[in-house]
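Recall that a protein's primary structure is simply its ordered list of amino acids. Everything else, from secondary elements to tertiary packing, is in principle encoded there. The following example makes that idea concrete.
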Amino acid sequence: MPANAALLAARLLLAFIFLSSGIAVLGDVAGATGYFASLGLPVPSLVAWAVCIFEIVAGLSILLGFETRLSAIALAAFSIAAGFIGHYGQGGGDPMLAFMHSQALMKDAAVAGGLLALAVAGPGAWSLDALRH
């Protein structure tokens, strides 16, 4: 696969997880607020809206290849933070929930790795960043 096609595919796949998550929060702010409250986060409704807006804006940035390196680094840091806040040590005494949370934590770490690779490689020729330079 040519490099520019691979970078576009990487951007599409990475953007998908953040756009779908941000849109899901937008569709159920109350549910997201409840989840963030259960994690003990302060002002959970503000956190829900901030996460929603950040995931949609940064996801669109990755998708379009606009300010890709900056967005990829910000989303990588977000993914690591979200993984540890939302999944590390979660599940209580339920082995199935503990397993699911450990898998989600590893997924967040892997996504962060992909985002860091994108930040280093850049968005490719088929991006807004390439058109601007």
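The chain has six helices and no strands. The radius of gyration is 16 Å.
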